[in-house]
């Protein structure tokens, strides 16, 4: 683009009328007078003259404007003009060229060339644009080939070539084979960014043919043959039985049929014949032993090729002395008498022939039998009448056993327990003292075992123990049960035997036996509580190791110990390894016999203590708070707060109890709240036990309160036991405060100071006595430090609750430990004898009965209306001075349900509710429960009793004239015969009674009118019901319908005979 140096088109105007060639001066020019002719132009000369020449063009005609400017005439003067310049030029005549490069428009060192009305920038390498302002991106044309990356520069670029290429533009494919990378004569093939070595026929392999080829690596040899490496080749070493270049051929050894006599040939190279349930060859398959074959011979032949005839008798198949005869492919046994079977293995049951006579029982034996005969028969088959016991000399307690042997009759005495000898004249009973065991020795080598009878009251202790060089066997009592222990070759076998809910330390004789037979340890107990009177426990024992020894074993002795440090009692009939131990052979210090005195008869333990018989003495297990040998010593109780005083006790422990803590004591109180005990350290209580609303609660430091269920403030003595674990005993102190808190603490958060009795306080087994113990009776003084007490009263003393006397109306007061009981006169009742009993004076005339009501009594009478006269009752009510103002009438027809008004209960609403609550003065006599309610107390009478307090049993039969008494629901009633009625069946039907009060003459007609309307309604209902019942089935009246209606009156009522119910 060409830029002009001026934006103005034209030039300053030329003003004046002078000719353009003249020069004005102060002297008039010679041409001023225009001397030349028209068309000529005067020109002054230097000499003062002038010349006339042709007229030159003027104004725009003379083309005064340069460089293509526009000339515009100006004014009237023909020489006047103005030049309008084209862009890039300036001056009056546009003769000046504007330099556009003066402003240095070209960038980045470009060269500027000024042109007409424009300039040109000659840019250096790498830049472009009108002012060379744009850097040229040489990478835009993608000069880099084969995936090379182009890096742009100033006026240049650089190519980063992909692997395998080179050159300025990555136009060259690099030849990787120039470095000859392939070794061992491998042929190199150039690739893009790589090469490929052809190792064929070189014997090598790898990317550069650098590794020798291992032909054996591919396991070319079959059947586990060994491979030998060579250069480009290999060689297989075959196992015997295999062949081929690669040992792939399994040579068939059975092809020649080597097995004779039809034997089956089995190749050892067949893996299917190894392992599994049907294996032919032992072990697992091995190529090392795969050569050869095995002949499976048919029965009767053997040998490697089944060429040997088998002698079946060589294995001596015939048992029990049978004679064997060899046969082709078999044998035959000729059995002796008593045996049969293919190999004479079966014993012939000779008892099938019933050889035993005279009721004898046959037991089959090997090749024979044995007869168990009745007492009077003997011989091999019970055919001999036994006469050996005729005139025998056995003592009366023994049993004579007749014997027939070698054709001779004799007898033997079966001795009772505790005796021995031909005629049971030797005593086998002796006593054992604890700590003084009896030692004895017996010959070793017999059957290992212990058998004896024992008697004791101790639950634990060793009964007997036998020991030899190899084994040791012990029989002992553990917790009242038997236990046998065998130590053999360093191993122990423990065998317990016990009966549930039955201990063997009951002071009676018990027979036991422990033995080792055929590797089994067996313990036996004969007892009535066992099934079939025999209990058995057994356990297998590991067999002893066999030690080969040619030298004979010398005779040895077996040592025996009877009793021990704990056992005390009596033993008899002791057998060790089958040898009987007699008392006379056990030394001089053995106590013969078994003298025994019952240690707990008579009972020596007082206050309900349990007596434990210790055989030679007794031990009393005392209930708390009693102790001592006979439970005669009582830990004294302490009364807190007697007479309203403040009482407390404090103890200092030498060491903290733990890790577990059990707090126990006896408590008796009627106060529902109070502080019982605190374990503290300085001023912080770690454990607090207190009463709240009659319940015992325990608070541990930082934990929730624990509550013992139930009420503890009933005035009875209770044993309280609280147990705490290690996690509940944080911050537990060594100070124990009882009955009150710390000296500076307020006990009100825990119910205030305790009032009542505490006794036998213990922390674990440590007793905290409230009073100094008697001299010489201090118990473990080292664990308890100082003790202090304030206002404690020894013993559990009651407050004088009868002062002042709370009993009214002449009642007698009896103190019942912080409470009282009033014994009331006949006509009064209640806790303080404040309630009057009106019925005690029998104010009601028969047949009416008197029943207590609030502030008085009522006379209740019953009447049954049938086809008879009316019933009349009379009486007086002395409990009210007011005139009779009302009358109540209750009747029953067929509806057995009575809805009672307030104040009455019972099936027929004839029992008034008494105002008194369930207490000592409202006792249900038959043991029925007293149920308190919002109005009074009721007795739920048992079957056969009735009345307010269940005082009327039907067993006394209060019903008259043959009536039947029936009690139900806390009341009773008399079911009368047809001729009588009334509560006791005392009213004879048909005898009218006079009306004593004229007041009823007015009330009765009104009542009769009401009853008549009621009867009409009932009659219509009955007729409708009977009509419905006739359509539905038969109907028979119930017993209640037969009994009729019931009438209750507060006063006198006479019903006229004209009015009847149903």
From TrEMBL:
CDD domains in alphabetical order: EGF_CA, LamG
SUPFAM superfamilies: Concanavalin A-like lectins/glucanases, EGF/Laminin
Major location category of this protein: membrane
Localisation: Apical cell membrane
Residue span(s) of domain Laminin G: 422-594
Keyword field: Calcium, Cell membrane, Developmental protein, Disulfide bond, EGF-like domain, Gastrulation, Glycoprotein, Membrane, Repeat, Signal, Transmembrane, Transmembrane helix
Disulfide topology: 85-94, 123-132, 161-170, 238-247, 297-306, 335-344, 373-382, 415-424, 622-631, 824-833, 976-985
Mode of membrane association: Single-pass type I membrane protein
Source domain of life: Eukaryota
Domain EGF-like, chain residue ranges per copy: 56-95, 97-133, 135-171, 173-210, 212-248, 250-307, 309-345, 347-383, 385-425, 596-632, 798-834, 951-986
A GO BP annotation: gastrulation
Record-level Gene Ontology MF annotations: calcium ion binding
Spans traversing the lipid bilayer: 1002-1025
Cellular component terms (Gene Ontology): apical plasma membrane; protein-containing complex
Family stated for the protein in its record: Belongs to the Crumbs protein family.
Protein name: Protein crumbs homolog 2
């Amino acid at each position: 683009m060409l830029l002009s140096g001026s934006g103005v088109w034209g030039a300053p105007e030329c003003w004046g009328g002078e000719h353009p060639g003249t020069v004005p001066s102060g002297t008039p020019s010679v041409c001023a007078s225009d001397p030349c002719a028209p068309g000529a132009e005067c020109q002054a000369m230097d000499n003062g003259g002038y010349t006339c020449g042709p007229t030159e063009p003027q104004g725009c005609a003379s083309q005064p404007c340069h460089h293509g400017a526009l000339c515009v005439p100006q004014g009237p003067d023909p020489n006047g003009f103005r030049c309008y310049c084209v862009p890039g030029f300036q001056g009056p005549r546009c003769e000046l060229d504007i330099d556009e490069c003066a402003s240095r428009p070209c960038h980045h060192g470009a060269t500027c060339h000024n042109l007409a009305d424009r300039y040109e920038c000659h840019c250096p390498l790498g830049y472009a644009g009108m002012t060379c302002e744009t850097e040229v991106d040489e990478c835009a044309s993608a000069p880099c080939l084969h995936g090379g990356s182009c890096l742009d520069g100033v006026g240049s670029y650089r190519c980063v070539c992909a692997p395998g290429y080179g050159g300025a533009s990555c136009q060259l494919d690099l030849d990787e084979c120039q470095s000859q990378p392939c070794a061992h004569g491998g042929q190199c093939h150039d690739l893009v960014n790589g090469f490929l070595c052809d190792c064929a026929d070189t014997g090598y392999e790898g990317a550069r043919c650098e590794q020798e080829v291992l032909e054996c690596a591919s396991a070319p040899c079959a059947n586990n043959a060994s491979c030998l490496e060579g250069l480009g080749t290999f060689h297989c070493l075959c196992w015997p039985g295999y062949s081929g270049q690669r040992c792939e051929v399994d040579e068939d050894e059975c092809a020649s049929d080597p097995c004779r006599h039809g034997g089956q040939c089995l190749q050892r190279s067949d893996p299917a014949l190894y392992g599994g349930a049907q294996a032919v060859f032992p072990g697992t398959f091995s190529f090392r032993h795969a050569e050869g074959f095995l002949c499976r011979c048919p029965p009767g032949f053997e040998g490697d090729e089944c060429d040997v005839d088998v002698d079946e008798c060589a294995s001596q198949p015939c048992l029990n002395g049978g004679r064997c005869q060899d046969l082709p492919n078999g044998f035959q046994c000729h059995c002796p008498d008593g045996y049969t079977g293919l190999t004479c293995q079966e014993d012939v049951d000779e008892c099938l022939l019933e050889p035993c006579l005279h009721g004898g029982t046959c037991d089959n034996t090997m090749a024979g039998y044995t007869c168990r005969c009745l007492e009077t028969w003997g011989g091999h088959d019970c055919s001999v009448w036994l006469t050996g016991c005729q005139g025998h000399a056995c003592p009366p307690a023994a049993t004579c056993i007749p014997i027939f042997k070698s054709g001779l009759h004799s007898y033997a005495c079966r001795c009772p327990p505790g005796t021995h000898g031909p005629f049971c004249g030797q005593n086998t009973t002796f006593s054992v003292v604890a700590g003084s065991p009896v030692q004895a020795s017996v010959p070793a080598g017999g059957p290992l075992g212990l058998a004896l009878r024992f008697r004791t009251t101790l639950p634990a202790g060793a009964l007997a123990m036998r020991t030899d060089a190899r084994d040791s066997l012990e029989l002992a009592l553990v917790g009242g049960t038997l236990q046998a222990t065998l130590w053999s070759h360093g191993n122990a076998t423990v065998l317990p035997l016990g009966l549930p809910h039955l201990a063997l330390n009951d002071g009676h004789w018990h027979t036991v036996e422990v033995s080792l037979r055929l590797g089994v340890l067996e313990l036996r107990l004969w007892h009535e509580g066992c099934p079939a009177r025999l209990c058995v426990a057994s356990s297998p024992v590991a067999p002893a190791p066999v030690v080969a020894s040619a030298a004979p074993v010398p005779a040895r002795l077996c040592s025996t110990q009877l009793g021990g440090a704990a056992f005390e009692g009596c033993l008899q009939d002791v057998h060790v390894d089958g040898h009987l131990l007699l008392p006379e052979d056990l030394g001089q210090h053995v106590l013969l016999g078994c003298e025994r005195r019952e240690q707990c008869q008579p009972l020596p333990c007082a206050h309900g203590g349990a007596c434990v018989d210790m055989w030679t003495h007794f031990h009393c297990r005392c209930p708390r708070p009693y102790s001592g040998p006979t439970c005669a010593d009582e830990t004294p109780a302490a009364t807190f707060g007697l007479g309203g005083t403040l009482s407390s006790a404090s103890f200092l422990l030498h060491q903290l109890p733990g890790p577990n803590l059990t707090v126990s004591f006896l408590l008796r109180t009627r106060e529902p709240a109070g502080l019982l005990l605190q374990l503290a350290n300085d001023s912080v209580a770690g454990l607090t036990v207190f009463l709240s609303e009659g319940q015992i609660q325990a608070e541990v430091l930082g934990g929730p309160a624990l509550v013992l269920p139930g009420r503890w403030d009933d005035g009875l003595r209770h044993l309280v036991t609280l147990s705490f674990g290690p996690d509940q005993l944080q911050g537990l102190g060594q100070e124990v405060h009882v009955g009150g808190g710390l000296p500076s603490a307020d006990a009100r958060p825990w119910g205030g100071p305790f009032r009542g009795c505490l006794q036998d306080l213990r922390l674990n087994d440590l007793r905290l006595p409230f009073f100094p113990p008697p001299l010489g009776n201090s118990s473990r003084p080292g664990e308890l430090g100082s003790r202090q007490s304030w206002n404690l009263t020894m013993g559990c003393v009651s407050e004088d609750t009868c002062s002042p006397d709370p009993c009214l109306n002449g009642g007698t007061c009896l103190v019942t430990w912080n409470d009282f009981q009033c014994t009331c006169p006949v006509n009064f009742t209640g806790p303080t004898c404040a309630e009057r009993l009106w019925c005690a004076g029998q104010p009601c005339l028969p047949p009416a009965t008197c029943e207590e009501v609030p502030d008085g009594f009522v006379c209740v009478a019953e009447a049954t209306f049938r086809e008879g006269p009316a019933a009349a009752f009379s009486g007086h009510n002395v409990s009210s001075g007011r005139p009779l103002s009302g009358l109540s009438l209750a009747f029953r027809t067929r509806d057995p349900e009575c809805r009672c008004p307030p104040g009455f209960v019972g099936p027929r609403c004839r029992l008034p509710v008494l105002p008194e609550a369930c207490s000592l003065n409202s006792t249900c006599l038959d043991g029925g429960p007293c149920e308190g309610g919002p109005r009074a107390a009721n007795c739920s009478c048992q079957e056969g009793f009735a009345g307010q307090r269940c005082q009327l049993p039907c067993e006394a039969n209060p019903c008259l004239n043959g009536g039947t008494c029936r009690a139900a629901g806390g009341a009773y009633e008399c079911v009368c015969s047809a001729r009588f009625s009334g509560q006791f069946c005392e009213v004879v039907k048909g005898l009218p009674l006079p009306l004593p009060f004229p007041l009823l003459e007015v009330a009765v007609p009104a009542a009769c009118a009401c009853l008549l309307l009621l009867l009409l309604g009932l009659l219509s209902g009955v007729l409708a019901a009977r009509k419905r019942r006739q359509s539905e089935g038969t109907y028979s009246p119930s017993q209640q319908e037969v009994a009729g209606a019931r009438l209750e009156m507060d006063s006198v009522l006479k019903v006229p005979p004209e009015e009847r119910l149903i």
